[in-house]
Amino acid sequence: MELSLNGGTNFQAVRVQAQTQVRLTHVGSPNSGLYDTEMLALTIPPGQLPGNLRLRESPTLPSRGAVRIASAADGSVRIGSFFDIFTEISLDGGTTWSGAASGPVRVQLERTAPEQASASNLLPPPGQEYVSPAEWHARYANGISIRNPIHNQFNASLPPPPPGGSNTHSFNSHLQLEVSLGEGQPFLPATANAVVDVRVRSLSLPTTVRYFDTEMLGFTMQLSAPGLPPGILVRESPTRASTGRTSIRSDGAGHRISSFFDIFTEISLDGGMTWSPSVTGPATVRLRNPSAPTVSITCPGNLAVSATSPAGAVVTFSVTASGGCDAPIPPTVTSTPPSGSVFPPGITTVTCKATDSCGNTAVCTFQVTVSRYVPPRAFPGNQLPPQSGQYVSPAQWHALYANGVIISNAAHRRFLQSSPPPPPGGQQVHTFDSTVEFGVSLDGGQTFQQFNGTAAAQVQVREIGGAGEHYETEMLGLDVVTPGPLRLRESPTLPSRGQTRIQAAPGGGHRISSFFDIWTEISLDGGSSWSPATAPVQVDLQLDPAHVPTAIQNVQIQGSELRFNLQTVRGLRYLIEYKNSLLDPEWFTLSGAEGNGQPDLQTDFLNNAGQTRYYRVLIEEAEPVTEPDPMGVQ
Prior knowledge:
Elements: E1 2-3, E2 12-13, E3 19-27, E4 34-43, E5 54-57, E6 63-71, E7 77-85, E8 87-90, E9 98-99, E10 105-108, E11 116-118, E12 129-131, E13 137-139, E14 145-152, E15 166-180, E16 188-202, E17 209-222, E18 233-236, E19 242-250, E20 255-263, E21 265-268, E22 276-277, E23 283-288, E24 295-298, E25 303-305, E26 313-315, E27 320-323, E28 332-336, E29 341-343, E30 346-355, E31 361-370, E32 377-379, E33 389-392, E34 398-400, E35 406-413, E36 427-441, E37 449-464, E38 470-481, E39 487-490, E40 496-504, E41 510-518, E42 520-523, E43 531-532, E44 537-543, E45 552-558, E46 561-567, E47 572-579, E48 588-594, E49 599-605, E50 614-621
Parallel strand pairs: 25-31
Antiparallel strand pairs: 1-2, 3-4, 4-6, 5-8, 6-7, 7-10, 8-9, 11-20, 12-14, 12-23, 13-14, 14-15, 15-16, 16-17, 17-18, 17-19, 18-21, 19-20, 20-23, 21-22, 24-27, 26-29, 28-30, 30-31, 32-41, 33-35, 33-44, 34-35, 35-36, 36-37, 37-38, 38-39, 38-40, 39-42, 40-41, 41-44, 42-43, 45-46, 46-49, 47-48, ...
């Protein structure tokens, strides 16, 4: 671990021995392979940490975790495990203890060195190499840094010791790495030949898998590269143990070998007269087979989906991988975020990684664009644009043009023609006449004048997904003519795109969600010159309460009972009110009704024959549908 004694300004690498006690409890069915775990103790004996510092697992808070064990087809075992560990620290040798203010630390089981295929069980495996993690750095007290070492070209390999035995392997080898002579200095490629001694000690009886403790007893190398001064030496630390672990498993066709070392190093700039230790801890190097088959991965193309809720949309996708050392078994693929996640509105980059059991990887990325959420509205049919709908901008919306003009609160409505959407996989252009209403300010937004204009519109609609529900749209033209010289048009150079979703509604009719982001230009001289907007206007489909049939129909009076039909439109809410005199200060509620597309019978009882009573109907949009089915894209 890394330890800071000054509030995080500086960290030093620390490696200690620890005494651990863990309780495992099997859960689930007899073959579930699932275990609840609890770390009962994690104690670091005195004297291993600087000064009087001590560290332990909390004796009062439970540090729990879980383990899952599953057998693999190749005879090996896959284990997943984690712990959430509550820790305490002591600065006075254990007299007083302080708990972590940041809560538990989560630790997850990781394999230090994935298995590599090998034709023999010789160590080090012929033709293979030890490498550090990508972009690993070692920094030394004298300011030197090295990174990305590759240790290979072993001139001798030996059989492992017998069960319970130990032997020392000595061999020559070659290293490639990069060296920087100081902070901010470039890294220069360097090479060196090395003499290495490794002790190998058997830990287990001869079974399918054998384990070995290893220790690098020493290596020394002299670096050489253009631009480096002579006399730079690197050696294994003579005072700190550079230990590791190796496992060898027979798989019928050969062997699978996992091996790593944690190597403490020192560097000298004067030919070995003085040595400077690494201040970043040991270098962990892992065995790698450079001749392993290449892992390949294929991501889908960029995806564009409509939000199905304010949170975004559930998006599913498929990523394929092949090759690697386990072929024909494909590599394991992980994606972040994973398929089936809720993607928020906007653009999210998905990163996918394929990994085989030998640690070989491949990465690909793609983008998921989720449009903003527009609640679906209920309409009697699936025609586009819905004749009882309107496209409106957000409240208090403003658009600024290059000539200083501002328009606000746009509404596109009264569509005179509508057309069914194209079939699955098809596209078509809808042409229709309509009305556009908006406010215009010529004084920087101090005052606004309302304008109504007739508009000829052209919209291209293209079905996507093949289910006849989702459509990409683009407004190809929108020419608004007002009684005066003011003109408004859709930009002829910038695409004004949108999306539409149509679903059959339970009980009849359709639910339609639709929006456009429209780039506009304005003219104050009848169209001779045009000024573009600095941003598109966002308009969303809503029901138009003004576009409804006459509400009260078939009025009948029988004695003191009044009856009439209220012709309703799906998606609208109706509130019937009355007063006995137009001079009365307030209206009284008779009843309310939710529109369903059918006549709604209303009744009222008058106090006496010949009584006069006045009625009105308030019409507003009902709450839009908020629980659409999640949408997935394959």
